[in-house]
Write a structure and sequence with these properties.
The protein has 85 residues and is of the alpha+beta class. The chain has one domain. Helix content is 44%, strand content 14%. The protein is built from three helices and three strands, in the order βββααα. A three-stranded antiparallel beta sheet has the order 1-2-3. β2 and β3 form a beta hairpin. It is globular, with a radius of gyration of 13 Å.
Length: 85
C-alpha cells in the first residue's frame, strides 16, 4: 500500500515580502501555505503517513480518522508540488 511509503520533506520554507509563508520546491516553485501545513510538512522525516498522523494525534485532541483523511489529502498535494518524496 502507498501509505507504507516513507516520505521526507523536500525544498525549504521562507516568507514572502508580505509575510506569507511559502514552501519552495527544489525547482524554485513557491506555494503559499499556512502554519499548519508547514508544521505537518516539518514532521515528514523518513516517516509514513500513519506515523505522521499518530504523531499529530498525540499532540492535539482530534478524531484520528478525520485527521488521517486531512493528512492523506495534504500529503498528496505536497507530493504533487514536489515538496515530499
Amino acid at each position: 500500500m502507498g501509505e507504507e511509503k516513507r516520505l521526507s520533506k523536500r525544498g525549504w520554507v521562507t516568507q514572502s515580502p508580505e509575510g506569507d509563508l511559502l514552501l519552495v520546491n527544489d525547482k524554485g516553485t513557491a506555494y503559499k501555505v499556512s502554519e499548519s501545513v508547514v508544521a505537518v510538512w516539518n514532521i515528514f522525516e523518513d516517516k509514513t503517513v500513519e506515523e505522521v498522523v499518530n504523531e499529530i494525534a498525540s499532540q492535539v485532541d482530534v478524531d484520528i480518522n478525520e485527521l488521517r483523511e486531512v493528512v492523506k489529502q495534504l500529503t498528496s498535494q505536497l507530493q504533487e508540488a514536489e515538496l515530499l518524496a
